[in-house]
């Protein structure tokens, strides 16, 4: 375990995921981008686990592959797939233990290639069907832009309707930041 600064949604998501990653058999990074989250998962997952990482952009898949190569984390149990996560998640053959979304756009890329509320909610619905008992879906959302605010609103509105008898749903957000900081949504399927 390491010290996690409790100041942003991604740090908090990693802190919450840390104890679960080594127990997971199947993990999915829905938006691999520059590969930071994929590397976080690949470094901690069990030797016999499988990790899927998706992105719609070729350049993101290439950046993630390079990051994993640099950290000696590439293996035949890490699957990097280009495409939209709603379609690719359907094709993952198994029940999934951990699903991570880091929404928004690639900071170093085309900011117009933003995740969208419609596709994200569609992918969450697929994730809710595929997630194992006690499994977790984690979403970092960025309401600081118009597109990000609309998406965060769509995610929040949908997650408020998820049945309490089947899933525990919560969120985390900073309260004293002057701008509109990222938020974290957390879903766990009840055991
Ligand atoms: C904030 S970045 C992800 C950061 C990344 N997790 C990391 O650790 O570097 C958001 C990513 O979502 C990707 N994206 C947008 N729409 C998508 C979709 N429908 N399916 C998969 N990826 C998508 C973008 O291309 C972008 O790379």
> Main sheet, how many strands, which sense, barrel?
7 strands, mixed
Integer count of domains = 1
The share of residues in extended strands comes to 15-25%
- Which cofactors or ions or other ligands sit in this model? S-adenosylmethionine
Work out the oligomeric state of the chains in this entry: single chain
CATH fold descriptor: Rossmann fold
CATH superfamily: Vaccinia Virus protein VP39
Given helix and strand content, the structural type is alpha/beta
**Annotation field: number of helices:** 6
Strand/helix succession = HEHEHEHEHEHEE
The name of the CATH architecture is 3-Layer(aba) Sandwich
Spatial order of strands in the largest sheet: 3-2-1-4-5-7-6
Top CATH class: Alpha Beta
Gap from first CA to last CA: 25 Å
Name the shape in a single word.
Answer: globular
Mean pLDDT: 96
The counted number of beta strands is 7
Describe it.
With 191 residues, the protein is α/β, with parallel strands linked by helices. The chain has one domain: Rossmann fold (3-Layer(aba) Sandwich), CATH 3.40.50. It has 6 helices and 7 strands, in the order H-E-H-E-H-E-H-E-H-E-H-E-E. It has helices at 9-17, 36-44, 58-70, 85-91, 117-130, 146-159; strands spanning 26-29, 50-55, 78-82, 96-102, 131-141, 167-172, 183-189. It has a 7-stranded mixed β-sheet, with helices on both faces. Helix 4 runs parallel beside helix 5 (117-130) and helix 5 runs parallel beside helix 6 (146-159). The model has no long low-confidence stretch (mean pLDDT 96). Bound molecules: S-adenosylmethionine. The site of S-adenosylmethionine has 21 residues, from helix 2 and strand 2.
């Amino acid at each position: 375990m390491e010290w996690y600064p409790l100041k942003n949604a991604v740090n908090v998501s990693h802190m919450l995921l840390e104890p679960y990653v080594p127990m997971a058999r199947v993990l999915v990074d829905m938006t691999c981008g520059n590969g930071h989250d994929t590397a976080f998962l690949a470094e901690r997952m069990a030797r016999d686990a499988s990790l899927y990482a998706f992105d719609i952009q070729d350049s993101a898949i290439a950046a993630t592959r390079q990051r994993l190569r640099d950290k000696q984390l590439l293996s035949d149990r890490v699957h990097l797939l280009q495409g939209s996560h709603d379609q690719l998640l359907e094709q993952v053959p198994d029940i999934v233990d951990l699903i991570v979304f880091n929404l928004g756009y690639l900071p170093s890329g085309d900011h117009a290639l933003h995740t969208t509320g419609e596709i994200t909610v569609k992918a969450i619905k697929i994730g809710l069907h595929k997630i194992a008992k006690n499994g977790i879906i984690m979403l970092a959302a960025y309401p600081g832009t118009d597109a990000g605010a609309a998406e965060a609103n769509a995610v929040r509105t949908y997650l408020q309707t998820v049945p309490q008898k089947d899933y525990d749903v919560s969120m985390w957000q900073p309260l004293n930041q002057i701008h509109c900081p990222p938020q974290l949504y957390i879903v766990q399927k009840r055991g």
